[in-house]
Write a structure and sequence with these properties.
By secondary structure, the chain is of the alpha+beta class. An eight-stranded mixed β-sheet has the order 3-2-1-4-8-7-6-5, with helices on both faces. Strand 7 and strand 8 form a beta hairpin.
């Protein structure tokens, strides 16, 4: 589907949804220092052709304006004539869409995801086991154990995007950048937000668990 074939109403609905979720997450201080970004796919999908709305570079997350988001194509380039520029992490969003076929991707920076991504960075994943919120990721095994991938945080964003296929796990809808933040995704905005909230709960539990004294 070409971008021009996507109904205007669908595009506007996507922008409205992103505005709403951005406001909700900003209240939680999940965009400190104007960090983080959100995207939502619109129209049809194939790995070689899709379109998504994403934050423009340099926007103030807690403030709602008419110039916060733009639409990008498979390569992360704007779909329309605009003076806005896609945020710098757009190549990562594009690669995740290509790999997963998901409908939404949310990227936030929090203290817990930053600390754990650095603490476990050398082993390449954050381990978690037996935490109830793992079920929110669609994993229902008793005492389930998961490994949340951690990628190095290069200044060159396309270099990070190239690493995603090698660490991508369909059953784990999230990837951490070391000492940076998490990208969480889902079939739609509701599921992506649910996964993001589950990951953040898991990270806090794992972090606080590391602080507990050993059992006697």
């Amino acid at each position: 589907m070409e971008f021009s074939e996507i109904p205007f109403e669908e595009k506007q609905a996507a922008l409205g949804k992103l505005h709403s979720i951005k406001t909700e997450l900003a209240v939680r201080n999940w965009f400190p220092g104007n960090s983080g970004n959100l995207s939502l796919r619109v129209g049809g999908y194939s790995p070689d052709q899709f379109h998504f709305a994403i934050n423009a570079s340099g926007t103030d997350k807690p403030v709602n304006t008419s110039e916060e988001f733009l639409f990008a194509d498979t390569a992360g380039n704007p779909c329309e004539t605009t003076r806005l520029k896609p945020c710098k992490e757009t190549p990562i969003h594009a690669k995740i869409y290509r790999m997963s076929g998901c409908g939404a991707i949310f990227h936030v920076h929090t203290v817990y995801n930053s600390l754990l991504s650095e603490f476990f960075g050398d082993q390449g994943y954050v381990p978690a086991q037996g935490i109830e919120m793992i079920k929110e990721l669609g994993i229902w095994e008793a005492n389930a154990e998961i490994q949340i991938p951690v990628l190095p945080n290069y200044a060159d964003i396309p270099s990070i995007a190239k690493l995603i296929p090698g660490t991508f796990k369909p059953e784990i809808p999230g990837i951490l950048l070391r000492n940076h933040g998490i990208f969480a995704w889902g079939r739609d905005a509701f599921e992506a937000k649910r996964h993001l909230e589950a990951f953040e709960f898991i990270f806090e539990v794992v972090y606080r668990g590391l602080l507990l004294p050993p059992r006697r």
